[in-house]
Amino acid sequence: MTSLNTTYLGLKLKNPIIVSSSGLTNTVEKIQKQVDAGAGAIVLKSLFEEQINHDINREIKAGEGFDYPEAMDYIAGYTQNNSVGEYLQLITDAKNKFDIPIIASINCFSSNQWISFAKQIEEAGADAIELNIHVVNSDKNVEASVIEGLYYSVAENINKVLNIPFSMKIGDNFANIVGVVNKLYALGAKGVVLFNRFYQPDIDINALKLTSASVFSTPDDIRRSLRWVAIVSDKIEQIDISASTGNHDGEAVIKQLLAGASTVQVCSAIYQKGAGVISDMLNELSYWMEEKKFESIDSFQGLMSYRKIKDPAMYERAQFMRYFSNLE
Fold first, then answer.
1. What is residue 296's predicted lDDT score, i.e. its pLDDT?
2. What molecular functions are annotated in GO for this chain (predicted)?
């Protein structure tokens, strides 16, 4: 009998599939669908400091005519407390209803809010926190080390106040991903999510305006994460990796686990195919394990990681010419 049990951030999961932070996880009713389909854990939709500030400004603008700073302060405080309060209630409700790990998510840009939100989230009962960070450096005078330092500062400060584990959801745009992950681990992160799928702009050449590119990943996007899951899992064995982006079927789940991931996050596939895709993935994983005679996730996790394969340099190759130099 095969077992799909695994662990992530010290939490016990009945299987390695986690539903990513998204609109799929912003209400108990939506979460219920993912749980019924077999999800091993849920990452709640992010608490966005940016969105809270937007709501505050909207409320203040709607109340034009206020000439008293005290009135605007009251509106700002009320709106923030209400937004955060709704999020904390979602955590409490989800924990009371479901018996799988509930991971909260925070997206901030000011250091004081990271600390404030994290402490409240822990008190609300979340099993762990995923810190969603992205900084676009458009200043030619700001060194890359300064941007990396922001990530380190968040990890260090959050680690001082939390008793529950936290992971860092990062992008693939670092010059030294292994070095960044290693430093985050040293500063207290128990896991990393590889990788964040950021907003990408596009241009409408007819309307001459900026638009958003597709928000969904494609199966081919797994290439972004697979290489680094394999390398990081081998270079920094102590940290858990949740593989994200491009996971659209059971084969993708198997590949990420073979590369060394502890869990696999799914989002776009659910939006496009419905929650039933989770069940399909789990069935495909179970069937493959039975066929290969693997009794547990541990028995094959990392089997195709950087160090385990005969030619680790395969994960380092960057140019197609190395493969096709002999072809006419």
1. 97
2. dihydroorotate dehydrogenase activity; dihydropyrimidine dehydrogenase (NAD+) activity; NADP binding; uracil binding
* CB-CB contact of 194 with 170 (8 Å): yes
Q: If you search the block for the tokens 């340099």, which residue do you land on?
A: 313
Q: How far is the C-alpha of 233 from the C-alpha of 236, rounded, in Å?
A: 6
Q: ω into residue 195 within 30 of 0, thus cis?
A: yes
d(CA 164, CA 158): 10
Mean pLDDT of the chain: 85
Strands 102-107 and 47-48: parallel
- Sign of torsion over alpha carbons 31, 40, 290, 227: positive
Q: Tell me the two tokens of residue 296.
A: 């547990």
Tokens of 239: 């940290």
Q: What are the chain's domains? A: 6-324 (3.20.20.70)
C-alpha distance from residue 208 to each of 47, 98, 199, 203 (Å): 32, 47, 19, 7
Q: Could you give the 3-state DSSP secondary structure of residue 128?
A: strand
Helix axes 111-124, 144-161, angle to 10 degrees: 30
Pairwise CA distance, residues 252 & 246, whole Å: 8
Residues 93-116 pLDDT 10s: 999 999 999 999 988 655 567 788
CB atoms within 10 A of CB 112: 9
Handedness of CA 264, 267, 271, 272 (dihedral sign): negative
Per-residue pLDDT tens for 166-184?
A: 999 999 989 899 999 999 9
Helix, strand, or coil here: 33?
helix
Q: How far apart are CA 278 and CA 42, in angstroms?
A: 12
The answer to whether residues 46 and 21 touch, using CB atoms and an 8 Å cutoff, is yes
Tokens of 113: 């809010």
Question: pLDDT tens digits for 231-290?
Answer: 999 999 999 999 999 999 999 999 999 999 999 999 999 999 999 999 999 999 999 999
